[in-house]
Amino acid sequence: MYWYCGKLIESQKLELDINDPGLIYGATVFTTLRVYDHSLDHSLTNWQAHCSRLKFSLQTFGWPEPDWHFVRHGAQILLQHFPVIRITIFPDGREWITGRLLPENLTQKQNHGIVAALTKPEFARSLPNHKTGNYLSPWLARNIVQAVKAEEAILIDSEGNWLETSTGNLWGWKDGHWWTPPLEVGILPGIERSHIIKHLQNHQITVQQEPWTPQLVKEFAAIAYTNSVVEIIPIHTVHQPTGSLEYNPKHPCFLELKGLFLP
């Protein structure tokens, strides 16, 4: 089932005009949220932040806003069946809302970490400040690294600096505090990224926002990635052309960040 243009539809198919720019060019914006305690108003669901993300992109592109009453109503219906909701907005203001389950083995990945691999610079996302329907680059990147038994791809720039993963923002632990790439390098301003930075700064904990150079990444004791669905997942191994890097997925630094997601 899904919600489309003010209606709940029981089907696995969505009918679009063959000239729809969302179909031809991936001309949509979207956001994906995890619903906590079956409530859009739960503080961890971050409903307003997700709506603000959509509004920012719509205003930037000059697209009309949807009927937000329909958007919320559709999300309310789908959250009764799914813990993860994706809201997509077309250039003419149509809303399309789908639901899905949490990833398999999520708790295991959160506790033990995963393997990631670097990709080539050409797989960096287009319009990185926005979540658009043109997600071909990170989708390809993730599929390619799965061939080397990695579960997540790390996108890089032309100088080899690490940017973000194919689905989230990067975090590293070094010298007693957290590091994350700055938005200026061309990454998505993730909602969980903002949530974590705000929490750490409120507790007078320094967050170093600097480019992740090939040298810097060798100095981290632990690294992880975050997004609104998986929360925080440590990365214990990163495959790269010059050899693999190993990190501690059970480092004590993760305890505070994991505590941010407790209901």
TrEMBL record:
It holds the Pfam family Aminotran_4. InterPro entries: Aminotrans_IV, Aminotransferase-like, BCAT-like_C, BCAT-like_N, Class-IV_PLP-Dep_Aminotrnsfr. GO terms for biological process: carboxylic acid biosynthetic process. One of its GO terms (cellular component) is cytosol. The keyword Transferase applies. One of its GO terms (molecular function) is transaminase activity. Belongs to the class-IV pyridoxal-phosphate-dependent aminotransferase family. PANTHER family: AMINO-ACID AMINOTRANSFERASE (PTHR42743), AMINODEOXYCHORISMATE LYASE (PTHR42743:SF11). This is Aminotransferase class IV. It comes from Anabaena sphaerica FACHB-251. The lineage of its organism: Bacteria, Bacillati, Cyanobacteriota, Cyanophyceae, Nostocales.
